């Protein structure tokens, strides 16, 4: 059953909350600790597979820009699928972006993360 509701971040699974908190402050080592060995991250159509590639992505993503990140929404799809919507503002082209972080969990860890433009 699909359940779309806006949730405060404290009601997200711990794995999602802690991964996201580490990612926002560019702590790739901590963020990587919440991933499966075969994790996949897709960011704006580019795919990173396995811990090494994913760790490099987490370490390097957005490092050339200054920006703030604000969670503006979250919802549960089912027990293993969650979406966190964020608003970025900064020095990147366009200056403002709303993105959906679509998490797929397996055995309590992030198995897949798809980052894409927010869809209403």
Chain-wise SSE layout:
Layout: H1 14-24, H2 28-32, E1 35-43, E2 46-49, H3 50-60, E3 67-78, E4 81-90, E5 96-106, E6 109-117
Parallel strand pairs: 1-6
Antiparallel strand pairs: 1-2, 3-4, 4-5, 5-6
Helix content: 10-25%
Order of helices and strands: HHEEHEEEE
Q: What's the mean pLDDT score?
A: 89
Secondary structure category: alpha+beta
What's the tally of helices? 3
Principal-axis shape equals: globular
Radius of gyration, CA atoms, in whole angstroms: 13 Å
How would you sum up the major sheet? 6 strands, mixed
**Percent in strands:** over 45%
> How far do the termini sit from each other?
20 Å
Strand line-up in the sheet with most strands: 2-1-6-5-4-3
Query: Uncertain spans, ≥5 residues at pLDDT below 50?
Result: 1-5
User: Would you report the number of β strands?
Assistant: 6
Which short descriptors sum up this protein?
120 residues, alpha+beta, six-stranded mixed beta sheet, 6 strands, 22% helix, disordered N terminus
Descriptive overview:
Helices cover 22% and strands 46% of the residues. It has a six-stranded mixed beta sheet, with helices on one face. The model is unreliable at 1-5 (pLDDT under 50). It is an alpha+beta fold and 120 residues long. A hairpin with a 5-residue loop joins β4 and β5 (96-106). It is globular, with a radius of gyration of 13 Å. It has helices spanning 14-24, 28-32, 50-60; strands at residues 35-43, 46-49, 67-78, 81-90, 96-106, 109-117. The relative contact order is 0.22. The two termini are 20 Å apart. The protein has three helices and six strands; from the N terminus they run ααββαββββ.
């Amino acid at each position: 059953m699909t359940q779309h509701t806006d949730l405060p971040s404290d009601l997200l699974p711990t794995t999602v909350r802690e991964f996201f908190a580490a990612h926002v402050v560019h702590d790739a080592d901590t963020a990587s600790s919440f991933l499966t060995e075969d994790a996949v991250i897709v960011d704006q159509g580019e795919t990173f597979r396995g811990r090494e590639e994913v760790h490099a992505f987490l370490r390097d993503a957005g490092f050339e820009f200054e920006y703030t990140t604000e969670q503006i929404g979250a919802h549960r799809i089912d027990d293993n699928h969650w979406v966190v919507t964020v608003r970025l503002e900064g020095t990147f082209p366009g200056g403002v972006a709303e993105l959906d972080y679509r998490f797929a969990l397996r055995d309590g860890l992030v198995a897949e993360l798809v980052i894409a433009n927010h869809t209403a």
